[in-house]
Amino acid sequence: MTALDVMWVGIGGGIGTVIRWLVGKWVAARFSSSFPIATFGLNITGAFVIAFLSVLMSIHWQSRFGEPLNALIITGILGGYTTFSSMQMDALKYVEAGHMAKALGYLLLSTVAGVMAAFLGIALASI
After folding, report:
1. Exposed, middle or buried by CB within 10 Å (0-12, 13-18, 19+), for 100?
2. Fewer CB atoms inside 10 A, N or C side of the chain?
3. Full-prediction pTM beyond 0.85?
4. Contact 27/37 with Cβ under 8 angstroms?
5. What pLDDT digit, counting tens, does each position of 78-107 carry?
């Protein structure tokens, strides 16, 4: 890890976080639901893209672009785009409202869908 890697992660993290914030605002303005659809969608699409690009980068890009691109895109942008902590806060809101089953269902659905999205990303990138 170099200082440049840290810089790329920071720049990417800022970009990914702004994208997450904008998508969250856009979804909230268009969909009225007690289900945290924005966080769910961001995490599932993020899992897919991280897995997809990780395979592509390890197969095709590593020799051409190396670690800086990985630091910028995978760790930075997509790390900022996805949000484990918001998922936990959404589940906690269900718990505080007395909906333990919804909280557990949301966490289970998020985890299973995220793993399935990652598997799909790996499979498509491996074609």
Report:
1. exposed
2. C
3. yes
4. yes
5. 999 999 999 999 999 999 999 999 999 999
